[in-house]
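Quiz preparation item.
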């Protein structure tokens, strides 16, 4: 069993975990860019099928309570199920937003972003130096850094590097030593997090995106799902028309 880990071991693993999480996010973006139109259409049809099924269910409940078919409008039914559909609609917006992202970051820029993040994280990462986060200035700085890091925003990272230098000088000199209790257990936990990131989606999209044959199979599968959802949605619309839902 591994033991006797140092603060340096822990720090490097924390930064490695964050790097892999960022890569996973980028693979997710690449996946949606490659398959986005199909994914979005498939998911749109799926939630429309769910919406129609819920509206039919609500319509039948109203009829059982004594309402007449002609007194219930389609818009009223949509309002009745809008709360239940909110999460689905938000997911669809998220897919649409990712499709609009443009990746123009060069390998050099990515390396610079990683370098800045590593430099700052070793001093003020909340897992490494939690005592600093009693200062609101440090908390806000870290939020800004993680946002710029995930967004591959090199210019913003350079700005924040300068801000971080001042913040580190202001607060870190007061920290005599960083003491991490139960460091062996903490290291093992971070190692487990790293393995979990690497073994699950969206990090696993990496292997799909590198295989053109698998990509073609995925596109074919998504198109089949679209066709099936469209056929089911058409049937639901016919059912709603027959029930008098207008």
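Solution:
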């Amino acid at each position: 069993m591994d033991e006797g880990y140092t603060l340096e071991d822990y720090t490097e693993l924390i930064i490695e975990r964050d790097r892999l999480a960022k890569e996973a996010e980028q693979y997710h973006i690449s996946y949606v860019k490659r398959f986005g139109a199909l994914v979005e259409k498939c998911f749109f049809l799926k939630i429309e099928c769910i919406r129609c099924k819920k509206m039919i269910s609500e319509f039948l409940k109203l009829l059982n309570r004594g309402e007449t078919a002609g007194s219930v409008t389609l818009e009223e039914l949509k309002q009745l199920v809008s709360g239940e559909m909110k999460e689905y609609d938000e997911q669809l917006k998220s897919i649409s937003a990712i499709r609009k992202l443009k990746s123009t970051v060069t390998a050099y820029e990515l390396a610079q972003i990683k370098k800045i993040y590593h430099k700052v994280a070793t001093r003020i990462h909340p897992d490494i130096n939690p005592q600093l986060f009693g200062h609101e200035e440090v908390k806000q700085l870290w939020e800004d850094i993680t946002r710029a890091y995930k967004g591959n925003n090199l210019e913003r990272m350079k700005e924040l590097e300068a801000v971080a230098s001042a913040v580190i000088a202001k607060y870190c000199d007061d920290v005599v030593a960083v003491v991490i209790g139960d460091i062996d257990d903490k290291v093992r936990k971070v190692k487990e997090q790293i393995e979990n990131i690497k073994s699950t989606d969206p990090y696993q999209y990496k292997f799909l995106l590198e295989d053109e044959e698998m990509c073609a199979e995925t596109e074919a599968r998504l198109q089949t799902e679209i066709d099936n959802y469209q056929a089911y949605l058409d049937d639901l619309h016919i059912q709603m028309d027959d029930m008098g839902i207008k």
